[in-house]
Amino acid sequence: MKQARGFTLVELMISLAIFALLLTLSYQSVNLLLDAGRQVAEPQAELQQLQRAVLLIERDMRQLAVLRPMNTSVGQRENNSISQSETLGVLLEFTRGGNPDVAWQNRESGLMRSGLQRVRYVLEDGKLLRQTWNLVDHLDTDAPVSLVLLDGVEGEPQFRFLAARGGEFKDDLPKERATLIAVEFSLKHRRFGEVTRIFTVYL
């Protein structure tokens, strides 16, 4: 009768070495897959952010409203529909319609909100911000609600305007806002490069 033979120390060491090698190779493979997943996920997230930003800008441009001059704490502004500010970082400021009345539960008390909304686009530290006020005639000291539309913006985004009687887009707004028929928006993104979109305006 033969006696059962166990593993020698050398055989155990070789087995452990092979197991450690296989474990290292498996870890590296999993790590490569995770890195590849991250490399795919990051551009997708940035693309989704860009698409959302363009969609929100398009909605704003299509809801532009031509209104009376705006009342402020220091008098009346020249225009309450759409204006270009000389303030550093402020790209465009305007009033839009279609602001939903989220206080529907208070309607019985007469606390309905206006369907108009004041909006401003601002560039701050490479981020495109959308700032809003629920009151069109807000005080200059009233803090807006800010939403980061897009980060990774290089340089300064630009709005250009097409008037009904004009044949090309221009940097300055037409004197008569009612003649505005389209807005061109362009920017440079760190990943996607130059991005330009044209939005139809229904005034």
Proportion of residues in β-strands: 25-35%
Please state the overall shape, judged from the principal axes of the Cα atoms.
Answer: elongated
Helix content: 25-40%
Number of strands: 10
Largest sheet: 5 strands, antiparallel
**Terminal Cα span:** 102 Å
Rg is 29 Å
Helical segment count: 1
Provide the spatial order of strands within the biggest beta sheet. Answer: 3-4-5-6-7
Unreliable spans are none
Task: Please trace the helix and strand order, writing H or E for each element.
Answer: HEEEEEEEEEE
Structural class: alpha+beta
Mean pLDDT: 81
Considering the chains and any ligands shown, give keywords for the structure.
32% strand, 10 strands, 3-stranded antiparallel β-sheet, alpha+beta, 203 residues
